[in-house]
């Protein structure tokens, strides 16, 4: 098991995040998912976050990421959802026609720490999203 460190601590903080498109609209394809992932990876360093795994289905994305003790997870998620929504609607204007109002992401999200399940099982679960 690889542990992360900073000046004063050793830690392993893995999170499984699920973000859902507003009204469960089926607007995510490979191209949009890749752009959403790129936005995520751009924002990560500002919050001491490392992306471990990413996958999507047509109406949601699954992420596995690592944080640090000083990471403000809720601020990070809100920053990502805001930037992702704004950029995706700007770069893929056809999405606006499929959504009501100006929202891309649902206000809610699912965030689970992965301490109770072996990380390989979570990775496999995320890798198999959208395979049905």
């Amino acid at each position: 098991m690889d542990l992360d460190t900073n000046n004063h601590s050793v830690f392993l903080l893995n999170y499984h995040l699920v973000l859902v498109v507003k009204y469960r609209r089926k607007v995510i394809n490979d191209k949009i998912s890749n752009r959403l992932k790129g936005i995520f990876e751009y924002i990560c360093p500002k919050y001491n976050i490392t992306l471990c795994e990413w996958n999507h289905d047509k109406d949601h994305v699954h992420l596995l990421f690592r944080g640090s003790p000083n990471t403000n997870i809720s601020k990070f998620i809100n920053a990502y959802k805001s930037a992702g929504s704004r950029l995706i609607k700007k770069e893929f204007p056809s999405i606006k026609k499929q959504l009501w109002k100006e929202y891309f992401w649902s206000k809610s999200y699912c965030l689970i720490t992965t301490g109770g399940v072996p990380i390989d099982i979570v990775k496999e679960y995320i890798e198999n999203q959208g395979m049905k």
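The longest strand covers residues 13-21. The chain has a mean pLDDT of 92.
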